[in-house]
C-alpha cells in the first residue's frame, strides 16, 4: 500500500471573486516530509515523465480549502461549511438555493474528478477523456441514450423547484471550477495531461439527472438472468435449467410484506390489522394497469404460460406455448453472448453490472427498542470503489421555513444535490434493491426498410451520434430505435449483427432473412420524476409525505423503509413497474414482431404493496420476495433473491426480543456484522459423515468439527468450508454449464454442439470460459444455496456425477462428489495458503482491494500503485448479513461489499451512527481518502452529529462561503 500522505488545505481559490485561506485546525507534523517522500516515489518509480511534473504543489493543489472564507458569486447570504475530524461536511444556509449551491461547491472540492468521469460515462463521452479504448463503450452508451433521456426529464417532467435546485447545484460546481486547470482539481487530471489536452467543462443540471440512469442500469433487475437462461439452452434442457432456478421458498423465507393483500374491488393494496393511518400514494405512473393476473410460470429457457402459482413457490415451469424461442441453438447463443460482452465491458456505476447487487435494511418499532422509539439500519451492497460511491453530508437550513425547507443528513452521490438515504428531523429512510423486472429483451425481425410488427414493416427511428476521441479521429454512428423507443442493442456489436441470422425461433416466427436484432425495453428509457422524489423525501414529515414522495420514485425500483420520531415504522414499494400479457413472463427474450408480447401498462402507486406499523413490530428487507403471490395479482419478477439474509436478520431480531428483550443501537450494528453461513449449516453435518482415506484431507475435514459456522477473517474452518463449497459448485454444476457463463481460464473437454457429423461421433472439443471471474456462474449466491438444498434430497441425481480427473476419483452420487470436493479443496488451499492448516485463515483468501475506478484499473502501473489501496482481510461472505460478496466461479477475493452502514436512532438523532467504505475525499493523498476504511473493515461506526449543538461540538474545520 502506498503511503497515505496527509494534507487538508490548499485550494486558495479564485472561485467567483476572492478567497481568504485559513488554517485547517489539524496537526501538520511531518506533512512536508511525507510529501517529499511522495515526490521521491514519483521520481523513482515514474522516472522523468512523472517525477518532473508531479511536484509537491501538484499533489497539494487540489486539496480543498476547509477553513477561512471564499467568495462565491451567486450566493444570497453567507454559508457555513463545518467539517468533522473525518472531513464530513455539514452545510448551513438561509435559503434553499444557497444550500444546494454550497453542496455543489463542496462536493466538487472533494470529488470533482469522480463527478466528471460519471457525467462522461452517462453521456457516452468517455473517449474524450481516455481515448480510443472507450469508443465501443461510448457507442453502447449513446445507443442507450441516458443523457438524452435525462434532458427530456429536465425539460418536460421535473418540477420547477427541482430544476431550480439543480441549477443552484450546478452553479456551485462551476464556481469551484472557475479559474482552475486540471492539475488544480485532481491528481488524475495531471496524469491525463501527459496523453491528451482534456480540460473539464462546466457542469449542467442534466449532468446530475443523468447519474440516476446509471444507477438504475446497475439496479435494473433480471436482465442478466434472461440472458443466462437463454445461453444455458446450448448445454442444458428445460428441466435442468429449471433445476438451476428453483422456486422461491415462501414457506421458509418470509416476504417483506406479510400483512394485507390486493383488493380487487378498489384496485388497491390494502393492509389488514395495522394500527395508525395507512396513507395513500399519490402521483401517477403515466400508464394503465392490466396484463398478467397471477404469477408467472417458471423462469425456464422457454416462455412459460402464466397463471396462479401457489404461495409456496416462486413459479413452476410453464409450457413453451408461443415462446420466442423453443430452444436457442448456436446462433442466438452467440448473439446473446455478444450482448453479454457489450454489457460486461461497460464501466459500472454502483454495482457489478447488475449482478450481486443486494442490500440489507430493517426497522424495529419502539415497542422492542431500549429507547422506546424506532431504530432503522441500512447497508447497501454494491461494488467496492475508490472513492466510495457514497458521499456523507448534512444539509441544514438555519431556520426551516418556506424560503429554506431542508434539515437533512445522510448519504448522497457526488454530482447530485440532496440526500438519497438518511434522515431529517422527523423521519428516517433506507433503501434496498427490489429486483422487480423492469427490463425485457425483444428479438426483432430486421430488414432493409425497418422491422416487422404485427405483419407490417415499420421504419426505425434513427439519429446520428458523433463520438469525439482524445488523440484520435471522431467516429459517427447511427442509432436505431423502434417506434416505441426501444434501442436496437445488436447494432453495437459486429457479432450480434451477423449471428442474428441463426437465431432459433418457433414455427410461427417470420422468416429470418438477414437475421434478428435485439432491442431493449426498460423503464428508465422513459422520462421520469425520480429527482423530484429525492427532494420530496428529504423534507417529508410523516408517512403521508413519505408515500407521496415514493410515488415519484420511478427508477430504479427500490424497497423503501421508514421510521419516524413519533414512533411509526413502514415500508413501501415504489417504481414504474410494467404489466405484461398472459403470453409473456418476462423471463427470456420475447418476439418483438408480435404486439401480444408488448407491455400492457404499469402498476399504479396505490396498487403497490406496503406495510405500516405491522403487528410483528419490525420490517426486514434484504432483496427477498416482496409479497406472497397468492395475495397479489401482478407479476413483479420471477427472479427474487432467495431470502437467506432477510430470514437470518428476522431470526436475529426474534432472538433479541423473545422473553421481553429490547434492542439497542449497538445490537443493530452487531446484526449488520453477522457472519453466519446458512449453507454451511446445511452442508457441514453431511460433510463430516464422509469417509476419507487421505490423512491430510481428513485433517482438513476435522476443522469443520465444532465450527459455529461464522466466517471470521481469522477462521481456518471458514476458509476450508468455502473452498469445499466452491468445489462442490464447480464439480456439480459449473463444469456442466456452457462456456458463455463459465469463468475465463476454465477450459474443459466437452461434447460438440449442433454437430452435423455421424450420430456415433463422440469427439470432444476444448471450450474455455468467457466471463470475468466476478461475473461467472455458478457464483455461489443464495440461488445456488436453494439449488443445492433441493438437490440434496436427490442423492443419485445426475447433477452429482462428475468424471475422474488425474488421480482424483469420479463421482456417481452426492456423497462421492462431496468426498471429491473435500479432496480438491484441501489441495487447492495447500497451493494457496500452504500445507500447514494452522496457518490457514479466511481473511488470507477473502481480501478487499480498493481500486480507483479509472486510472487505478486501466492506467500505468505506477498510477495504480499511487491511487489504489489494500488489501484488507475481511470477515463475512456471500449471502451472509455481513455481505462481503465473492464469486465462487472466479475465486475468493471480495467483489461487492456493504458500501456504507448506518443505524438511525429516532429517539435521539445525535446517537445515530454511520460509516462509509472509504472517506470523504477523492484525492489520493488527502487524509480523508480512506480514513474510514479501517474502521469499516472492523465493523465500527462513527458518531453521526445532527443537531446544531452536536455538529458544533464535532466540528474541526469551518469554511465560510460569502456572496
TrEMBL record:
Membrane-spanning ranges: 35-56
Gene3D superfamilies in the record: 1.10.1400.10, 2.30.120.10, Glutamine Phosphoribosylpyrophosphate, subunit 1, domain 1 (3.60.20.10), Penicillin Amidohydrolase, domain 1 (1.10.439.10)
Region of interest (Disordered), residue spans: 1-27, 271-327
Domain of life: Bacteria
Biased composition regions of type Low complexity, renumbered to the chain: 1-23, 271-283, 311-327
Entry-linked CDD domains: Ntn_PGA_like (cd03747)
Keywords: Hydrolase, Membrane, Transmembrane, Transmembrane helix, Zymogen
Chain intervals with Gly residues compositional bias: 284-297
PANTHER family in UniProt: ACYL-HOMOSERINE LACTONE ACYLASE QUIP, PEPTIDASE S45 PENICILLIN AMIDASE
Protein family membership: Belongs to the peptidase S45 family.
Identification of the protein by name: Penicillin acylase family protein
